[in-house]
Amino acid sequence: MKIKNLRNEVHDVLTNNILPYWINRMIDCQGGFYGRITGNEERDPDADKGAILNARILWTYSAAYRLLRKEEYLQMATRAKRVIINDFYDKEYGGIYWALNHKGIPSDTKKQMYALGFAIYGLSEYHRATGDKEALDYAIRLFHAIEDHSFDTEKNGYFEATTREWNEIADMRLSEKDANERKTMNTHLHILEPYTNLYRVWKDEKLKQQVKNLIELFTDKILDPDTHHLQLFFDDDWNSKYHILSYGHDIEASWLIHEAALVLGDPEVLAKVEPIIRKVGTAAAEGLTANGGMMYEKHCDTNHLDNDYHWWVQAETVVGYFNLYEHFGDEDSLQKALRCWEFIKANLIDYENGEWFWSRRADGSINRTDDKAGFWKCPYHNGRMCMEIIERCKEQ
Question: Is the pTM of the predicted complex or chain greater than 0.85?
Fold first, then answer.
């Protein structure tokens, strides 16, 4: 009964709280979507338009259409597809621009592999939902661009970023809070995720090899074998000198790595992965608090704890622990997922305006400093959480 209630509640939040917000508030009549809405619900029509936001809108509404078959979701997905292909795709050099200005002209032309990955994720999902050949063709183009320009053929893994012309770039950081290293956990996770989704619809042998390779990079290089937390930043030789625990990434990676192994369908890979991801789930639980929420991160060298409750971390916590319950019958993980969902309902969902707040601070106040919608605040984490639960609970 608890699982049935969970499914019904997330279905309601998805269809009445998350998805309508972006349809009603973010469509830019001049083209595509606005770049930002502040934490105080103020639309910023002059804000830059980020590749990540547009690619995540594309993925979210494609997946929603695949699952729920509502025409308005297809219209949103198709609008996002056109923006990605017509405006963000670099017709001269290939790849995806990092940002456009509010008029749709490229404002930051660097090639961040994270952005190419999310474009693949969205385009492959659009093809999965509709059978559209154009979307698949562009997803495949972007796969080859990552492999040709980012893959380290000597020491394995993927470099973070290049210039527009695919040359070396001094500042490779994904955001200001990141270390300027050439290889990161975050980008590898969000290359694994779209490669897995692309492999669902395009059974290419090289893609298969690279999905398997990415899984092994996580189990053999990125994961700390002693703590079962993910390491975040690496040099070319896979040395990590940063001691930061990102609880949300731990639990998100646990289910995305598992998903990749399941889609890959290699029994040996799955047999290796499944005990590991259960240990990752146990390690991530160090960030859970008595109220059911998951803290953001811990800097081990200074013992500084960022104990804010970010929207995306809570969403991934629900999926990650539900995944451990679903596949291994772990009742304790089910309780973790259910408690976190109760925390989300009480603390993060904006029942007045729609969507979720960026975070609830450790002191209990709502974070209105950060965006309600923007470069990084997208409908993907919370929308995906709802859709994952809906799909996983079909048989319950």
Answer: yes
pLDDT digits (tens, 9 = 90+) for 304-344: 999 999 999 999 999 999 999 999 999 999 999 999 999 99
Stretch 39-44: mean pLDDT: 98
What is the C-alpha to C-alpha distance for residues 195 and 260, in angstroms, rounded to an integer?
9
At residue 394, what is the residue type? K
| Amino acid 189: pLDDT | 98
3-state secondary structure of 160: coil
CA–CA dist 246, 70 (Å, integer): 36
The CB-side HSE value for 23 (13 A sphere, CA atoms) comes to 19
If 0-12 CB within 10 Å is exposed, 13-18 middle and 19+ buried, where does residue 112 land? buried
Residue whose C-alpha is closest to residue 138's, from 115, 114, 122 = 122
> What is the distance between the alpha carbons of residues 296 and 72, in angstroms, rounded to a whole number?
34
Whole-angstrom Cα distance, residue 339 to residue 332?
11
| Residue in 238, 188, 194 with CA at minimum distance from that of residue 214 | 188
Q: What is the mean pLDDT of residues 368-387?
A: 98
Give the single-character DSSP code of 349: B
Q: Distances in Å between the alpha carbon of 7 and those of 2, 61, 351, 393?
A: 9, 19, 19, 7
Other Cβ atoms within 10 Å of 241 Cβ, number: 11
What Å distances lie between residue 130 and 197, 313, 391, CA to CA? 14, 30, 18
Q: What CA–CA distance (Å, rounded) separates 84 from 78?
A: 10
276-306 pLDDT per residue, tens: 999 999 999 999 999 999 999 999 989 899 9
CA distances from 11 to 4, 38, 105, 130, 380 (A): 11, 26, 37, 22, 15
Could you tell me the two tokens for 229?
């937390």
